[in-house]
Amino acid sequence: MASTSIAVPQAPSLPPALTLLRVVPGVLLLGAIGYLGKFIEQSINAYAKAHHLTIPNIEYVLWAILIGLVVSNTIGVPRVFQPGVATYEFWLKAGIVFLGVRFLLGDVLKLGGLSLSLVGVELTVAIVIMTLLGRIFKLSPKLTSLLAVGSSICGVSAIIATKGAIEADDEDASLAIAAILALGGLSLVIFPLVGHALHLSDRAYGLWAGLAVDNTAEATAAGALFSDAAAKVAVLAKTTRNALIGFVVLAYAIYWAGKGQASEIKNKAGFLWQKFPKFVLGFLLLSLLATFHAFDKAQIGSIANLSRWAFLLTFAGVGLRTNIRELGKQGWRPFVVGAVGEIGIAVITLAIVVVADKFI
Amino acid sequence: MAQEKAPQRRFKLSLDTWAVWTALTLVLLVRLGLVTKVPW
After folding, report:
1. N or C: which end of chain B has fewer CB within 10 A?
2. Residue A100 per-residue DSSP state
3. Interface test with A, best of B13, B20, B28, B37 (most A CBs within 10 A)
4. Is A282 an interface residue toward B (CB < 8 Å)?
């Protein structure tokens, strides 16, 4: 489910060695930007400590995203770096697999079960709100479906999966992706501010970010901007949401096939497996191994740090792939529908999460 | 007349699957002690 298949042109089939070489410059750029973010965070903290100053800690996550944003919106990302920058989603998924080692399976089941029930409510709310708004603003029905899937499940990946299944236009998919990406970017600023203002616990904030922020990379970043513990919960809640992608896409495919505007899916089980995000299985496997003490403390530390490095590359990629001018060219109506819908979803999920955090 | 596409013979892994196998390989290297003390 490469979310980059629309945003970044795919190269023709090349031998594996050449494909690997093509991504090297971009991956180095991701690493350089991510590391610069980490360096800035550490330098500010060291300066504040040396001068006995109290400065709020700005995480490397925000620095990496900001530097990426500045680069992509000023000088732009030169062509030679683009294939490597597009690998940010690969690092995100590898990072989530590594993160499994920091969860005991019991915690995954407990928190995952809570997330699953909350995701059920969030899915219903998101689909109802987006469908209503799409009708009010007279968006094309397929664009409305794409926005509903994007806001209810997992952003760009879900939109691309649904686009194929319901045979939507490229233009509708681009509009929905642009809206979801722009709103994902805004959530990185708004969510931590609201979370701190309301003094949410790490668990409540993590659940909220995992349920209401659409793209997995942004949900992880929004969690990490609050705290490390919140990032863990956000990833778990978001992963639970991602795991349901196949069911929602299948439901939309059946709906549009029923209207005679998409092909019928014959092998439904095969379709569900094809759409199922496989990194969820990797995450669960590592959690299972950690639960049965397959790793010692030092090994768990090393794997957790691998996860941090993978996320560092991801966050640099989030900034680099966001081109504000390009997003602005896409027209205002999908953004308004997306924005109004997302605010509604964020408010409702926040209320649910606060109640769930108090009573469960 | 549209030409029929040759069947895709190359075994292609999705990005998801690549990410999982890469991560699991690195985890195995850590478990075997070939990669130690990853810094942060």
Report:
1. N
2. G
3. B20
4. yes
